[in-house]
Design brief:
By secondary structure, this protein is mainly beta. It is built from one helix and 15 strands, in the order αβββββββββββββββ. The strands form four sheets. Strands 2, 4, 5, 10, 11, 13 and 14 form a seven-stranded mixed β-sheet that branches. β8 and β9 form a beta hairpin. The protein is elongated, with a radius of gyration of 24 Å.
Length: 176
């Protein structure tokens, strides 16, 4: 009988929210990784306008899923470095002394997508395909039901640029 009373008290406390509820859920792990862009060999005028189009992977760039338009005249993207402000539409210099432009963008836009980067001023199109991610596709979490559902991520490990294997996991080098 005392077990029945204990059970009833626990049930009432649990129902009132006085005892923590535990939830269990399987979460799909999202792709992560910032695949930025460095444009080598271009003039400022040639990269004045950038169009990014995302397509379903493996559709030979036929099934467009999203797009973005960046125009240096109307959408200047500034960000602050250690001690200065960098305008990505003006040239920077890499460790070897070579100039490049680095518009602030991330080509990772979900898994299963190919990317087309169009530079109308240079009459040039770059394509990024076969982005591969490592890590679990999904993960089962146990957490307090009053908390937010946990997230998990899959790391970008490789991709192809214009048919060639990309050599930078955090910055895609595109050459004229």
């Amino acid at each position: 009988m005392k077990y029945l009373y204990a059970f009833l008290v626990m049930a009432m406390l649990s129902g009132c929210g006085l005892l923590p509820h535990h939830c269990k859920e399987t979460v799909k792990c999202m792709p992560s990784g910032n695949l930025g862009v460095r444009l080598y060999g271009y003039t400022q005028e040639e990269i004045d306008t950038i169009i990014i189009r995302w397509y379903a992977a493996g559709t030979n760039f036929q099934n467009q899923t999203d797009s973005e338009f960046i125009d240096s005249a109307t959408a200047m993207h500034y960000y602050t470095g250690n001690d200065s402000t960098h305008n990505p539409f003006y040239p920077a210099v890499d460790n070897s002394g070579e100039k490049y432009f680095s518009p602030q963008m991330d080509l990772v836009h979900g898994e299963g997508r190919d990317v087309e980067l169009i530079l109308p001023g240079a009459n040039k199109v770059h394509r990024v395909t076969e982005m591969k991610f490592e890590g679990e596709v999904s993960h089962e979490f146990e957490y307090s039901c009053s908390d937010e559902v946990p997230k998990c991520y899959r790391k970008l490990v490789s991709y192809k640029v214009d048919g060639w294997l990309g050599n930078q996991v955090y910055g895609c080098e595109l050459r004229k």
